[in-house]
Design brief:
The protein folds into two domains: about 160 residues, Alpha/beta knot; about 70 residues, Trp Operon Repressor, Chain A (Orthogonal Bundle). About 30% of the residues lie in helices and about 20% in strands. The protein is built from seven helices and 13 strands. With about 250 residues, it is of the alpha/beta class.
Length: about 250
């Protein structure tokens, strides 16, 4: 039997958070079909003392609580040991979900989809002790310029964003080739454009008609129209994507 293409281990204080999302839609199907393997680990199991303490007050004072580095190290070592029992011989990429991290985008998802094993650590409270980050974390990832209560939602975003790029995750593989943020060659440069607008039946809706070109059956003209709309939409909503275009040798 073939082994999953991607392994995700999640370290979290709230394992129940993942019960429903991992049992829903295409992610659930990918897990059942053994395309990906996801294991959720409760950090609190490795807490200190009878009360399983996982956090403490920050040195120097200030609000909030900080996740303890010794607790996180124990949890991480446990995951690494479990990985060896599953026969994983590759080094995992250890990611901390943190609002101060690098932005997660389609380009990063494409890079990650070539990897094999991820350990996703969900930050919480005031954050994670900096020494743990320096010693054990390969990369810190943020899903946007805003703050969440914890990294659980961000971990789900990373899992789906990466997994859906694997062959077999999406029913029609072609649908991933022209969606938002995929690379296209435009005027000799590689750009990442937003997706084109889509329409379906009925042809008329509240006085608005679907574009006639889409009903013409002229596939070449339709493709040209879609590309024009992608550029137009990107220029209007996300001009920064066009500014980041990079040259590609012919």
């Amino acid at each position: 039997m073939s082994r999953p293409k991607l392994y995700f281990d999640i370290l979290t204080l709230f394992p129940n958070f993942f019960h429903s999302p991992l049992r829903t839609s295409l992610v659930s199907k990918a897990i059942k079909n053994k395309l990906i393997h996801v294991t959720v680990h409760d950090i609190r199991q490795f807490g200190i003392g009878t009360h399983k303490q996982v956090d403490d007050r920050p040195f120097g004072g200030g609000p909030g609580m900080v996740l303890k580095p010794d607790v996180l190290e124990l949890a991480l070592k446990n995951v690494l040991a479990q990985g060896r029992t599953r026969g994983l011989r590759v080094k995992p990429k250890v990611i901390l979900l943190d609002p101060t991290g690098a932005s997660f985008n389609q380009e990063k998802a494409e890079v990650f989809s070539k990897k094999r094993w991820f350990i996703l650590i969900c930050g919480h409270y005031e954050g994670v002790d900096e020494r743990f980050k320096d010693l054990f974390v390969d990369e810190q990832i943020s899903i946007g310029d805003y703050v969440l209560s914890g990294g659980e939602t961000a971990a789900l975003v990373v899992i789906e964003g990466v997994s859906r790029l694997l062959p077999g995750f999406v029913g029609e593989a072609e649908s991933t080739l022209s969606e938002s943020f995929t690379e296209v060659k435009l005027n000799g440069k590689v750009s990442r454009l937003l997706d084109y607008p889509v329409y379906t039946r009925p042809e008329g809706f509240k006085g608005r008609q679907a574009p006639k070109i889409l009903l013409s059956g002229n596939h070449g003209a339709i493709e040209n129209w879609r590309m024009e709309k992608r550029v137009e939409k990107t220029r209007k909503i996300r001009p920064d994507l066009l500014q980041r275009s990079k040259s590609r040798d012919r």
